[in-house]
Amino acid sequence: MVGGGGPYLRETVRTAVKILIVGHFAVGKTTYVGTLSEIRPLRTEERMTQAGASVDDLAGVRDKTTTTVAMDFGRLTLSDDLVLYLFGAPGQQRFTRLWNDLARGALGALILVDTARLQESFAVMDIVEKQGLPYAVAVNRFDGSPEFPDAEVREALDLAPSTPLVTCDARDRTSSTHALIALVDHLLTDGQEAP
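The line above is the sequence of ATP/GTP-binding protein; the predicted structure tokens follow.
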């Protein structure tokens, strides 16, 4: 049975797994965590102001009025004894110091990318790789974003052949679940191949 429903954990839960949801600024991390969370997600969004205009590049971003300033948090119960905790990290460079704390104890990361702004994904991927976290990449489909064959996206991001690459719509629960499954499958396979 997927989804625990209520705000409290079942007494049968024995394993909790921490997963990071990361990506560049305005790629849909807050939406993704909110879509999958069975509880009301914790959000630390603040209204963007003119003071941040010189720091937060809004080029290619439509109707963005808020930004995450600490993290997003959600929970997803996978079975009677297993729960996933989803931690969404802010995407701006000035918040990367938070990532050390958020990454502590994480089993892996799902990196959201936008094909219209792939170049912004490199800094995020670098941080995840420096943390030593296994990861999967999910292309978040935005209306009007260009579509490319997976092979081209994989090459543009310089992904290892074993790194999962999937597409999703962060607003859609089924689509977002498939992206998360790709990461979990990768973590299970990666763990079995370790010496």
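Note on the example: The two ends are 32 Å apart (CA to CA). The mean pLDDT is 82.
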